[in-house]
Amino acid sequence: MEKLLTVLGASGSKTKTTGTISFQVDKHILIDAGNIFEKYECDTNQIEYVFISHSHFDHILELPFLIENGFTTRRKQLHIYGLPETITHIKQFMFNDYIWPDFSLIPLLTTGEKSIVFKEFNFDEVITIGNVSLRPFKVNHIVPTAGFIVKRGNRGLLISSDTYKTELLWELANNNPEIKYIVIEVSFESMLSRLAEVSKHLTPKLLDEELNKLKRTDLEIFIYHVKESSFAKIINELSEFENLKKFNVKILPKELI
Ligand SMILES: [Zn+2]
Ligand SMILES: [Zn+2]
Fold first, then answer.
1. The total number of structural domains that make up the chain
2. Which ligand is nearest to the CA of 227?
3. Claim: this prediction has a pTM higher than 0.70
4. What angle (nearest 5°) sits at the alpha carbon of residue 151, between those of residues 63 and 186?
5. Would you tell me which of 19, 45, 104, 180 could form a disulfide with 70, CB atoms 3.0–4.6 Å apart?
């Protein structure tokens, strides 16, 4: 059975030992493009769909190489999905011929089709590819940002993307029993609450408060997007807050079944 999620990158920082955000939903489908090549096990020309949660660099940084690497033999178009604002900014600031060629105008050498197809989605639109569905939902970050409910059959998980305090995420978790896992960001230690507020990220203390909104106890909760300089402090803090202990919140492992 295919894994519901394989982690290609889950750190809030790019360092010698950590890569930024990218998840493999299946061989053809990724969420975010922060760290693909180090961990993706097949030929990256098999990747046909990339769902971008928002335009920040830690979520898009390997997109240019995803299309460039293996270009001469690529047979499948690369579909880049995002909110309208995200797509606009990726086109305007990345594939603009100044930073990187506009591959949406360059045909594949193998089939003659456009190599990149940009696709806009809206919040709450369900996109189905094969036996996987993705439902983007609105979170609270400094640019328009989508979290995702990912489902395969009756198994589902919710990924927050980058967010500060939010109501909708917890409503969705409370009302969708097929969601078995919550994968939620925690970027900074609780001492950095002011930085978290202005950059719209969570801390362990904020997640502890957010968890008062969760009415279910049958979910597993994992954190990701930890800034490397905050990692040790955040791990310690997981055992310091009541709700984090009650829900047994853990750091995200490499795979979710
Ligand atoms: Zn961000
Ligand atoms: Zn981020």
1. 1
2. 2
3. yes
4. 60
5. 45
